[in-house]
Amino acid sequence: MLDVAVQTEPEWDDGADWDMLAEAAVRIAIEHSPHAGWLNRALCVEVTVRLTDDDEVRQLNAQYRGKDKPTNVLSFPMVQPDLLETLANTDDGEAILGDIVLARDVCVREAAEREISVADHATHLIVHGTFHLLGYDHQGEAEAEAMEALETRALASIGLADPYNRD
Asked: Can you tell me which residues bind Zn(2+) (predicted)?
């Protein structure tokens, strides 16, 4: 079972169904991970997606990453990567994977640069953030390639183009 709580600030009120979009993005990422089986169990997997402004993201980025600037997406995992496997053996209860936070103006600007909708770009960023909650990272070249390949396959399965422009 999947429970995605979406917290949307007013600047994100552009007519998109952010609740549906966020749940679909988190679900598709989990389905394309080794943890897809979680979705067919009584275990309730919880993720919070916060859609906010650049100022809040800048503050979080400064506080938690030492970078005093807004970024497109931040992820805050609640389960250590080495403990994710133990959830595979859990039949009930709750697993709070963590929080994903998106910055509105950064997302709008990046979407315009890529000539895609804000909703499509936000979907990619939520998928990306979910993979971080699942223990993936992109610090080294091999890790980045593996994570990008997962994202690309997940997005392709819902009809979205490769965000890394590999044709």
From this structure: 128, 132, 138
Domain boundaries, the chain: 2-156
In the block, residue with structure tokens 């931040």 = 74
Give how far Cα 104 sits from Cα of 9, 10, 52, 97, 162, Å: 9, 10, 6, 23, 21
User: Do residues 79 and 96 touch, judged by C-beta distance below 8 A?
Assistant: yes
User: What CATH number does the domain located at 2-156 have?
Assistant: 3.40.390.30
Task: Give Dmax over CA atoms of the chain in angstroms.
Answer: 44
Give the Å distances, CA to CA, from 89 to 45, 79, 85, 106, 114: 13, 15, 8, 39, 41
The annotation places the binding site at: 128, 132, 138
pLDDT in tens, 29-86: 999 999 998 888 888 999 999 999 999 999 999 999 999 999 999 999 998 888 888 8
Task: Answer positive or negative: Cα dihedral of 77, 7, 60, 33.
Answer: positive
> CB of 111 within 8 A of CB of 118?
yes
Q: Which positions make up the binding site for Zn(2+)?
A: 128, 132, 138
Tokens of 70: 């807004």
Pull the structure tokens for residue 24: 């679909």
